[in-house]
Every structure is written in structure tokens, then in C-alpha cells.
Amino acid sequence: MDQAFEIIMVEFGLIGKKLSHSFSKEYFEGKFIFLNLTDHFYHLFELNEISGLPELIQNHPALKGLNVTIPYKEDIIPLLNGLDDIAEKVGAVNVVKVEADKTLSGFNTDFYGFKKSLLDWIAPGEQKALVFGTGGAARAVCAVLEDLHVPYIRVSRKKRDDILTYADLKADKSFLKDHKLIINATPLGMFPEVNTLPDIDYALVGPEHFLYDLVYNPDLTLFLKKGFGRGASIKNGFEMLHLQAEKSWEIWSA
After folding, report:
1. CA dihedral of residues 68, 70, 74, 75 (deg, nearest 10)
2. Among 2, 52, 85, 132, which has the minimal tally of Cβ within 10 Å of its Cβ?
């Protein structure tokens, strides 16, 4: 007599608003093939609003974990049942573990990925930094810099008490001269908007500067091209992406 076997499926996915640029699906599907996990699947879940998360969880009972990207790294927090220490410190979540009882635990692997990638590149304690952006990725960058005791200034398009604008950097050239580590934690330059970049005076950038762009698609953003053309050392976000993805898998597999 033939015996029927129940196929048990295990699902993971990425949530965000626009995911056409995503690397995660290809990365994790390749990992599942390498590990011979034929019952594991990874999906792209585009959500118009983060309020759609509970319905997503309900409709995918086999879901074990999620990655979180723009613009929901902060907005997702009220929908979670708890945060680990790093996610709480950063104030942003890019990984969610779906427990067996459907409670949702939030983590931040951007912190781990950026820190290791930065330390593999330079000795950041010798620098002062400018951080472009105020979103979840920028929060992780700032938390790492604080952890490494690196002085930094945040920069955005809108003026706030503790945040400079790009116009401020142009008005006072000393900011770019004194801060040698410049980190783009905005989506500027990301595919398909490849002709966008942070609005700074690139003539003030030189061989003593280090430009780090969290964007990884394209490999060489206009921000990095401008810096490289001025003799600066440059690095994109590809290594960070791999590091945080592996940390995600470690969390889901625990």
C-alpha cells in the first residue's frame, strides 16, 4: 500500500515597499540549494503599509523568518512582541524571527554587518565621521560608531537640532575637511535611481577620505565614483549585505 507523505514547507521572506532591487531572494534560494533544503522557500512581500504584516503572517503559516527593508525598519517595531538588545539600542529592526506560537521577535543584523565590514577595512577610531541619512540603516551605522567611540555628525536634507543639512556642509567647508569617514546610509544612488547622490562639495574630498556606501546595487554608485575620482578610498555595502544575511540565517536557525 502506498504511504502518503505530508510535505512540510518552511518559508522566509523580505518585506518592504519596493523590492525590485532586492538581493535577498537570490541569496537565500542559493543557500537553500547549497544546503539541500528543498523544502525551504524565500519570497518577496511588497507591503503598501506595515499594517499588512499581521495578515501576511496569518496567510503564511509556514513562515519562520523575515528580513525587513525600506521603509519599515522602524515602523515594524510596535507590531513585534520583543526586541533583542542590539535592535533596542539601534531603534530599528531588519530581521524578524517568527516563533512557533507566532510571536514576533525583532533583531538588527545591520549593526553586526556594518561593524565587521568597517573594521575589516579601516581603523575607524582614528577618524571622525559624517553619516548621511536618518532612517533605520543610518541608526545602525550610528550605533556602531558609538560602540567604536567614533565621533560623528548626522546629515540630512531637513534641519533638526542634532542634524546638519547638506547646505550646512557646503556653507562650512571645515566639516568635510575634519571628518574623513563619510558614510552614505541613504538610498541615493540605488538602482534604478543611479544618477542620484548626496549633495556635497566633492571638490573637498581627497586621498585622506574614506567613503563607505551602504548601497550595493550598482557596485559603484555615483557617490563612490566621485570619491574615487578625487583619490579617496571607497567601499560599497556588498560585504555588509552578506554578513547581515548570514547573521539572519543564524538567528532563524537557532
Report:
1. -90
2. 2
